[in-house]
Target: Subunit of enzyme for 2-thio modification of mnm5s2U of tRNA anticodon U
Amino acid sequence: MPHLQVNGEAVEVSEAGWLEDCRVWNEEIAKAIAQAEGVTLTDEHWDVIREARAYFEEYGLVAEQRIFMKLMKEKFGPDRATQQYLYQLFPHGPLKQGNKIAGLPRPKGCS
Model:
């Protein structure tokens, strides 16, 4: 099983780099996954990551894109709830890349 090195410790990930156990996630792991994905995390990235994690913690599942966009609009306004905005942050897709960095399970349909 592949590993990601975080602060000298091995964290198990899938072949595609998704955390095997989302319960071990922390911000240092997020930074390591983001680095592997070529993403430099900003405050805006962290807002998206925290919203995705909050939804998962409350409902036990990853938010569908339509639902997530609505949550972002309610919390941060319409300018931060567009496809264009989210793809600027996560070029490989807010659901795929954003959730991967957030340490959440792989959404259905994401390879």
Observations:
- The chain has two domains: 3-37, 43-101.
- The longest strand covers residues 3-6.
- The longest helix spans residues 43-59.
